[in-house]
Amino acid sequence: MSNNTVLCDKKIILGVSGSIAAYKAVEVLRLLVQAGARVHVVMSANAVKFITPLTFEALSGNPVYHEVFDSNSSSLMEHIRVIESADLLLIAPATAGIIGKMANGIADDSLSNLCVSYNGVTIVAPAMNDNMYANLAVKENIKKMKRRGVKFVDPEQGELACGSIGQGRLADPSNLLESIKKEFNSMNDFYGLRLLVTAGPTHEPLDPVRFITNPSSGKMGYALASAARDRGATVTLISGPTSIPVPEGVRFVSCRTACEMNDHVLQMFSDCDILIMCAAVGDFAPKQIKKEKIKKKGKSSLDIQLLPTEDILKNVAAKKDRQLLVGFAAESENLTQSALEKLRDKKLDFIVANDISSPGIGFQSESNQVTLINKDENTKKLPLLPKVEIAHLLLDDFIKGMPRSEES
Ligand code: CTP
Q: What's this model's pTM, rounded to 2 decimal places?
């Protein structure tokens, strides 16, 4: 995406806290609006002492939120709705006070309330006296927030409002704008890439009412599909039977059996750049599917002959040219060794291994803990995290594994 259009139509919340640098937020707002962003300004209780909300209202064309405990409680709800759907929260200028509140989840005014309720991408641009910025408690708060994924645009050196010279001046508005563009560009790191993701279990029918399956919920594959879509990819999700809603903005192909999944993947493989085989594909299917329901009357036992299904990854490996191939390995023993064997055997670029014997991770659960192995057989153990966060960490590595454009 072009650097000039990356902010077009993006919904940005500009949080202004009570610093002498609050007037510079006007220039930040002007640059954002000029770049095509839709900006909603939220001011802290102290910020309104430095600059009037009307200035921001006139420039943004949107109402400015600066009160919490007013008689109009629907205003708080409305602003929480606005912020929840925002693409980015920018706090500029950020005082030591708002940083402390954000780091510790304190919500006692309009701005801190909204900061605590927002879970999306957040950029903080501190502005304060140099001694305050050097203070250990402030530094620890910043470190804490960085660990949670909050980005910081460091203050600049120069003359401060108190007359001293040091690091504490709000970053130049044009530098701030560049940082925001950079953040959106990195969020779009899958732009132009076509991803094929498989998810869920397969059902291998025995008769009209019975089938062989496994407990895969599909959550990991759906999380990967949604995360890749959010990062700009064109995503096709081929899913076995699950009870999860179809993610918006993703092309969805539903299937039931390993054979159907194999057909869909083979048909679409040549048009994709990355195939992520997250589905728990049944390895065996009944040789015969009975037309009528199998009756128990007169039977002391029942023999069912199973035949191996097509190995989808092996089938596509034979057709691979530029595509990146990612497999998953759900293992109950010898996790790394078994996953490595599959990586080599199926000629994969990555394998994501998870230990299904550990409680609370893998099939069905909301969280996962996986080990990622690349084709050079380097392993990386990721922490226990919600599946959507695991999805983003995996995508970070997959994008680095893509052939560079000059090589392809
Ligand atoms: N897979 C596949 N086709 C199959 C079975 C599995 O493409 N018929 C894919 C899965 O989607 C996964 C990877 O292969 O990405 C490993 O699946 P897994 O079931 O763990 O491995 P198998 O090769 O089936 O070996 P086993 O079940 O014996 O561990």
A: 0.70
